[in-house]
Amino acid sequence: MNxxxxxxxxxxxxxxxxxxxxxxxxxxxxxIHIGQWSPQTGPAAPWGAxxxxxxxFFQLINEEGGIEGRKIVYHMFDDSYNPAKTKAGVxxxxxxxxxxxxxxxxxxxxxxAVKEYLMSKNIPWVGPCxxxxxxxxxxxxxxxxxxxxYATEAKAL
Length: 157
Known about the structure:
alpha/beta, single chain, Rossmann fold, globular
């Protein structure tokens, strides 16, 4: 599946969540607040391109009228691939802005730092950028892993 189709799938999924969400945190009549963490600095900074690409994609959606007339407000922060920074940044944005859903998020260690927090608050998290089985086993109601599992990739090689 190419990247455009993958992002389109994510947007269709978010559209479905918004339609059933009603007056959910992070969704107003005019805006949808989406969060993402990513290493923009430090040794893992090249992976920061994922978050910058997500931002461009959301900008294109907004230029086309948004989702049901709502504009995506994209909140991306640099965690330098440091789980402590990820945890603090996610909590700060969630509690100050009210993020409706989290998109991607780079890394197993950083994702594990916030997984329980997000799941305990019933906040959707779509597409963690990690192939760890910890996203799929056991299944989580609000966690939607779309990245291939490392074991599956290894078998394909």
